[in-house]
Amino acid sequence: MTGEAHGTAETHPFQAEVTQLLHLMVHAVYSDTDAFLRELVSNGSDACDRLRYETIAKPELLGDIPLAIRIKPDADAGTLTIADTGIGMARQELIDDLGTVARSGTRAFISRLAEAKEGTGLIGQFGVGFYSAFMVADRIEVTSRRAGASEAWTWRSSGGEGFEIAPAGAAPARGTEIVLHLKPDAKRYLDPHEIERVVRTHSDHIQFPIELIDKSETRQINTASAVWQRPKAELKGEDYTQAYRSITGAFDEPAMTLHYRAEGRQSYAVLLFAPSTRPFDLFDPARKGRQKLYVRRVFITDDADLLPPYLRFMRGVVDSEDLPLNISREMLQNDPQVVQIRKALTGRVLTELATLAEKDASAFEKISDAFGGLLKEGIYEDFERRDQLLALARFTTTAGNARSLKQYVADLRPNQTEIYYLVGESLERVKSNPKLEAARARGIEVLLMTDPVDAFWTALPLGFEGKPLKSLSQGEVNLDLVPRLDAGDGKDAGAGSAVDDAATVAAVKASLGERVADVRASQRLTDSAACLVAGGHGPDRQLDRFLSRQGRAAGAKPILELNMRHALVQAVAQAKAAASDQDLADLSALLLDQAQILDGEVPDDPAAFAARLNRLVVRGLPIM
Predict the structure, then answer these.
(1) Which candidate, 160, 197, 158, places its Cα nearest to that of 181?
(2) Which tens digit of pLDDT belongs to each residue from 378-414?
(3) Are 616 and 572 in contact (CB under 8 A)?
(4) For 83-113, what is each residue's pLDDT tens digit?
(5) Residue 317: what are its φ and ψ, rounded to 5°?
(6) Pairwise CA distance, residues 388 & 550, whole Å
(7) Which of 344, 363, 342, 349 is nearest to 313 (CA)?
(8) How far is CA 356 from CA 114, 143, 271, 274, 368, in A?
(9) Structural domains in the chain?
(10) What is the rounded CA–CA span in Å between residue 249 and residue 260?
(11) d(Cα 422, Cα 450) in Å, to the nearest integer?
(12) Residue 560 forms beta bridges with which residues?
């Protein structure tokens, strides 16, 4: 940095992530550069919102300067100016806010931005909207005076390695003025008609006047109306789409729109949207809810937690007529009126989702595909609404995709009294799991669960319409009462040699010792030799793996189940009868090793597994 005193210009380096981001903005070519104007106007609106909030406690900050956003093209100078009369920025804020991207997940965003063909569809999701101006400008000057401050400062950068900051000469009385020196291929944004088109498309619903200064004429080019306060009868589908994009900064289409006014003990307007695509930071632990809270059209916060975490994908606005304007962010958590709004809003969202699922299955499927994992979080977290959330859940099953529990129960096989499921890390692995064999032989539908949260919510004692959920990898499973699809073809008969099941099980258990919790004959298997299951109490296999990786569980020993009709298991009985201890040990260990592999695990001792397998192959042990 040069120049220690505030009276001289200083240069500062950009944060590393900003340098990477600017390189992408400057050198990449995106199909829709309109995003820069939307983002700068949105930033101006946020600055006006912040000032309006500050003036609740300090009315003198507003003075006689109206809140507004002004856009001024200058064709002769090749500049486009976007100014607001909002809160403004002090010197350190300019350094911190324009020189640093202090958002969790930014590195991942930059990586996605570098790979994306439609990069502008990502801008605005990670707090990098200001930097999108470098798509159209080769030099940017930001002059700002914070409300109530006597000093003003100018920030300058050409999108290189750093920026300069110096005391401002001419400066606004309050707020921020951004001057873009446009690149030759971006001069179309000096055309007043082009500016008006972009503003009407992306920013028409901004709450403050957006004024276009066209030579000596100044005119407002947005409606500046709170769309959520307007009657539904006045609005069309395109109005909601524009409002969604303006409020959220997204480019996709909303999969569901919820617009209503609550009257009674409390009065508030609601305009919420369910996106059709998943934002990249959805599972970022630092990500908060994205519902904006207004009080009588005054923006309060976008972090009011108006919906539970499992509905954090919902975006939009809640505008209360009853909350005090000076309510603090801390008070929001415990304010009884906010608690009532939160409860009513959550119920209404879930009801609307259920209605959408019935009336427009394709639209609901978009929500389920993108946010089904979040809704399952609610099954785990929200006891009061658990039945509603179970009804909303959609599953890939052995019978098809996007299946509901209501559909599952309607298709139960004769004598089937439970809803069966299997949890795993990937759909391919679950589909090939041997624990499905007995169910598949009887035509029993099985829920195939691969979301990480599935391992947690299924640990609860749950049921649907009187049918309990039952894991195929935990406890004992007996499907004998359900008729096989191939009944009568002799498959249930013995394999021809009398195998002393109890003696064989005991021999394998003695050979494996402490490596397993137990060994028993399986009712799950029809083709495979062995599988691993969890005991009837404690975590299921997948949950135990998750907890073990996090150091939260010791790793429960599994139960080894044997298909007593399989040739390899019969070979164990033969080895026992022949008193061949080495063969018995090798075959018993091989049964455990292959069960671990089929479960997606690595054998406890891979080298011993390889040596054991080699011995059996070389000896040509007759196991058929």
Answers:
(1) 158
(2) 999 999 999 999 999 999 999 999 999 999 999 999 9
(3) no
(4) 999 999 999 999 888 876 544 444 555 565 5
(5) -135, 140
(6) 31
(7) 349
(8) 36, 48, 16, 11, 11
(9) 10-220 (3.30.565.10), 227-365 (3.30.230.80), 501-619 (1.20.120.790)
(10) 22
(11) 9
(12) 519, 532
Residue type, 568: L
For the chain, the maximum distance between any two Cα atoms, rounded to a whole number of angstroms, is 105
Helix (H) or strand (E) holding 612: helix 606-619
Average pLDDT, the chain: 85
Tell me how far apart the alpha carbons of residues 440 and 431 are, in angstroms, rounded to a whole number: 11
Tokens representing 242 are 């524009």
> What is the residue type of 148?
G
Structure confidence at residue 57 (pLDDT): 87
Q: What's the DSSP call for residue 448?
A: E
DSSP per residue, 296-323:
TTEEEES-S--S-GGGTT-EEEEEESSS
Q: Are the beta carbons of 561 and 530 closer than 8 angstroms?
A: yes
End-to-end CA distance of the chain: 80
Q: Which residues of the chain, if any, have pLDDT below 70? A: 1-7, 16-17, 21, 23-32, 100-128, 284-289, 326, 328-330, 487-499, 552-555, 621-624
Residue 452's Cβ-side half-sphere holds a number of Cα atoms within 13 Å equal to 6
Q: How far is the CA of 270 from the CAs of 96, 128, 228, in angstroms?
A: 34, 28, 6
Q: Residue 336 is which amino acid?
A: P
For 498-610, strand residue ranges (E) read 518-521, 530-533, 559-562
Mark 501-510 as b/e (b = at least 16 C-beta within 10 Å): eeebbebbbe
Distance CA 468, CA 420 (A): 9
Tokens of 126: 């990670």
CA distance 342 to 330: 15
pTM value is 0.72
Helix (H) or strand (E) holding 401: strand 400-403
Can you tell me the distance from the alpha carbon of 476 to that of 535, in angstroms, rounded to the nearest whole number?
A: 8
Query: For residue 66, what is the DSSP state?
Result: P
The residue to which tokens 């073809």 are assigned: 489
Asked whether 140 and 179 are in contact (CB, 8 A), the reply is: yes
Task: Please identify which residue in the block is written with the tokens 């990480």.
Answer: 452
Rg (CA), the chain: 32
Written as one letter, the residue type at 419 is I
Structure tokens at 72: 């001024």
